[in-house]
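hey can u run this one w/ IPT bound, need the structure tokens asap thx
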Amino acid sequence: MVLSRRTFSAIAGTAALGLSLTGRTGAYAAVTAPAGPAPGPAGADGKAHTVGFDRYSMIVDGGRVVLWSGEVHPFRLPSPSLWRDVLQKLRAHGYNTVSVYVSWNYHSPAPGSYDFTGVRDLDLFLRTAAETGLYVILRPGPYINAEVDAGGFPGWLTATRGTARTADPTYLSYVDEWLTAVNRIAVRHLYTRGTGTIVLYQLENEYANHVTEATGRAYMAHLYRKVRADGVDVPLFHNDKGRNGHWVPGSFDTSGERGRWLYGFDGYPSPSEPPPDWGYFGIGGPKGGSTASPETPGFLAEFGGGWFDPWGGVEFGGKGYAESRRTRDAAYERRFYLTNLANGIKAHNVYMAFGGTSWGWLPAPVVYTSYDYGAGLDEGRRPTAKLVPLHQIGYLLQSVPELAKLDRAEDIDTGAPGIKAYHLTNPDTGAHVHVLRNDTSAEAVATVPLAGTAVPVPVPGRDARLLTTGISLGRRTLRYSTAQPMLRLTTGRQDVAVLTGRSQEATRTVLTCAGEPAVTVLEGNAGYAYEDGALRVDVPLGGLTRVSVTGAGVSRPLLLLFADDETSARLWRHTTPSGPVLVYGPALLRTAALRGTTAYLTGDTVDEADLEVWAPRGVAEVVWNGNPLRTRATASGSLRATRRLPGAAPVRLPGLTEWRQKAENPESAPGFDDSAWRKADRTSSFSTTPLPDGQPVLFADDYGFHYGDVWYRGRFEGAADATSVSLAYVTGTQGLLMAWLDGRPLGTHRMPVPDRKTVRQGTWSATATFPVTVGASGAHVLSVLVRRMQHDEDLRANDTHKAGRGLASVAFDGATPAVRWRIQGEAAPDPVRGPLNNGGLYGERNGWHLPGFADDGWQPAGLPRSDRVQGVVWYRTVFRPAVDPGTDASIGLTLTDDPARAYRVQIFLNGWNMGQYINDVGPQHTFVLPNGVLDTRGANTLALAVLADGTTPSGPGRVELTLLGRAAGGVPVTRVHSPGWER
Ligand code: IPT
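ok here u go:
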């Protein structure tokens, strides 16, 4: 639908009216007066601040802010020092906000027990975000989904009364416990208090199933009241799972505080379809975006900047994250995020900006260990090519304040049918924005009316670009440019503007000039001409082209920098109290501080790099990573280092040798002493999985075992005539069961992977039937090991996280013995590594994974192996990398073998469970070992728990360290406390 101007202003008028009726004053005011200048970067400055919004954008301290946020999960990077690395990279690449889920299960090993220390130090994360200059969107659930076990619900919650995600009183009592614990930290970091940078706080997550029911509304109202009562005074919101209009203001009781609740929604469109419109401007359907919530700004609480990957091994299985990054590449980011911008979205959150690792038993059944997500920053913390458009858009949104307030303007006819054109305007300044998107595969040329001139603008196939007219470049005004503006600042005595585009593109930029200015092409190719009160500059993009414009009645020179994509990602702006700094050259600028006449910069290089700095007046010296540099002043008004910065030193990784080996699973032997194990004799369960008739409950959660492997030993007498035993069991994806009778292996059963049709209704239950020869009457022992994998997420709010896990029942053919079961899962949670670090393997219960475990009695072993056993064998070794202290090396562990071999490996580095490798499933072969957990300059203990089906030779095959990336610089890394084994 195309709105006429009249209809459109009618809608806009209604919105303004709605706002003035509900606007409030105070810390959370929805501002009705014109907003003032944009506030500086986020920081905890001890002063009180206001955070509000109107229908256009967030309003912080009276100024408009477009939130350009990236999602990062602290729980997916178990090395607090590296949080600073990732947050600095976000800030440097143009984000002004970080969005953070807090996963309840990560912090709570048991009801009433909440741990925010060590790798769980949320306070430290939030402090680091503030120090880095990022606003925070905090999302503590209680439900988060997020491809984590049970969608973030603690294991123990799966074994409690009541229906989760409703107003059920038992559930709410646990929720309050969690929120009290997490909010105690959150309130210390509210931007309103000046002690942190939290500006938004999310309740629940994609809560769609009880929207119209009383219990759903009561639940949301309860969360709202609770969070307010705990002192959280920033605007609250919920993320609708699409633009459905769920939980818009007024849809539940927010204690009359409508101006403090805003509507957000998520988008994960298919990369192979044209980007959808979100309805903000009445296009794209009536329900969506701010059409559903006209008083609140367009807010994409999550928008797919990548996608998660499932286990491999089947036709529709995961293909690895290189594939996510290929289908959602740089051009995808431009097409989809520029479309969002064109739809009036003013608060964006890129899910994920850095995905990280679902280490230990964190991953939900839908994903494997790596949560790289195909994000702009990869799991090894390295920037990828798709970070470039995000970098450009982030800087654009922060440097062009005109973009914070846009109305829809008249549609234009581009004369190019393949191109979708959006036209917006800022009602206060008259600036115009055009987004041109080409959904076809061939380049098309749009004709765009730019400031009264019909300008041909080529748009490459499956790509998009944004053009502006009438924006301020400091003292001068950009009439128009066919290059995309990226940033502008005033530094020293000049204005600087950066314009970008694809390499080799011909661009035209026109400045309004009352008289003919003096133009100097300082570097690169540029043609220019002065005509009719305008300066025209034509630049074919390549590297950095510099054009200086001075005079003609304007007191401040303007330096135009034209940067192709690659070059644009090496331009860094940093704000200091004495003004902004622009740095060109290195692979990363982390921090910039000005003291006296010196600019102190920290950052990274990979290869040798030039360094050039535009700084406020008076700055004459530059110090890079603590080293004073010799510089000279350039004609561009910058200081340039006379020598290139050195690149990163080479990194040589040690081979992994001197393994020791020991088999375990003594639980399979008939004489094993299980008297300390729990009796499995319950007759009722909190599970949603139906119980078999006449047998005790065997689900592990009901006995307090929530993660990883679980053992069962069943005793029975007689049954001499039994011909087979059938074991029904329930797991997540890729679960398995293996069994022994009186110490003899019966076999392994792998949970069938559903096909494309049945995958959605998959209940993940199966029955393993093994032929048996019981023979002699008398006492027998059936030993069963179940690799449960994890609990389902509860995406649809129907308690699916409570589906049973473990053994369900047993039946014999030819006999009916009564079986008395005992059960053993994980030991008491590791107080440092947390509840999700360990399952119930014998080795784990006895510390075989820990540094310092006395393995001297183990057998020396060489890899590769090809033993054929059913059960568990451990391998341990110690290795010592010697990475140069000034080098940030990103290191992984790579396992490879003949893919026919049916075995899997749990990887422990210094006692930390770094994930699960399944040799015959994949697709993951390389596991990131985060520095901090990894000592890059000392001894590390690697322990591999190999679980083999027994149907093929087992491994491990090749096990080696892989260098994922290296940079000179990095952040100081403190070793993560990794307590060792004690007798
Ligand atoms: C949506 C969730 O909010 C988020 O937690 C995560 O699961 C993400 O998507 C996918 O990675 S769920 C939505 C795709 C139905």
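The first strand starts at residue 51 and ends at 53. anyway lmk if its weird
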